[in-house]
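User: Hey, my collaborator sent me this sequence without any context and asked if I could get a structure. I don't really work with proteins. Can you help?
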Amino acid sequence: AMGAIGLSPGDEVIVPATTMSATAMCPLIYGGIPVFADIEDDTFSICVKNVKKLINKKTKAIIAVNLFGHPAELKKLRKLANKHKIYLIEDNAQAIMAKEGKDYCGTIGHIGVFSLNYHKHIHSGEGGICTTNDDYLAKRLQLIRNHAEAVVEDAKVQDLVNLVGFNLRLTELSAVIAKEQLKKLSRHVSKRIDFGLKMCEGVKSLKIRGIETPKIRSDCTHSFYNWVIKYDEKKYGVKRANLVKALQCEGVPCFSGYVKPLYLLPIFQKKIAIGNKGFPFNVSSVNYDKGICPTAEDLFENKIVGLECCAYDYSKNTQKKIVNSIEKVFSSIEKLKDIKLKE
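Assistant: No problem. I've predicted the 3D structure and written it out in structure-token form, which is a compact way to encode the shape of the chain:
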């Protein structure tokens, strides 16, 4: 997608601080500069207000991630992109079949990116799909996917920018598997939605202080790639790590924090990516200091606790057992105050 939009060295791409690392790596392949925007405290998606502040003359695109299965504010972002004549790319790896209004995620941006990786709602082992309703972008995506440099002459392609081709073809075997998986898509997604909503209902019925279940905006649907809650340590004086360990001991396969805000990774802290001279960071003054995205840092360090909805085939009985385990742990949470876990 970055190649197709004509990204060039020094161009800036606004990306959310909290997402899988590949989202921020793709601009670097073409010498682009990732610029990190903070995320919303309730839906965990890229913050539109923060994006507005980051747009400048160097900005080429915004990458919105529909994190955990909930849509970002895609229509607002598309309107913003159109206003500034830049691109909106949707990383929709986690939100297949989720909607904002009547529109499916992955169809609101200029390009939508879907994953067929092994732990998504459906998969074919590895790989993914890009979608667009722009013929020019579609052609460029096809060329870059399959050795563009060898065919541009015969195809009489005039715009050669970034048409250094890769070998990213989906194999016929993977394509056949993906085609069959698509037939089952509604069933797989519906099952995860049912699990996520039942978890919300079950936990809310416990009326536990210090827990916020996933928020779903009134005009959106959530496809529940992950079921993620916010935990407030101050309510109990119990560290999140102790809570998560107690839940895991009860058999709940939960995680904490999701991923570290990406600008804190060594590649950005040391500003070493392509080659040994600091390219492309050496053509930019973008700041990657700790503290630039306080909401993302707070959620990672203190609040997020989640379940991977697509990693397991949860039965209704298992879902109830998880809620019961949460109730059990919180009924004795005071006992977790003074426990010190080994690092």
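In plain terms: The first strand starts at residue 12 and ends at 16. You can pass these tokens on to your collaborator as they are.
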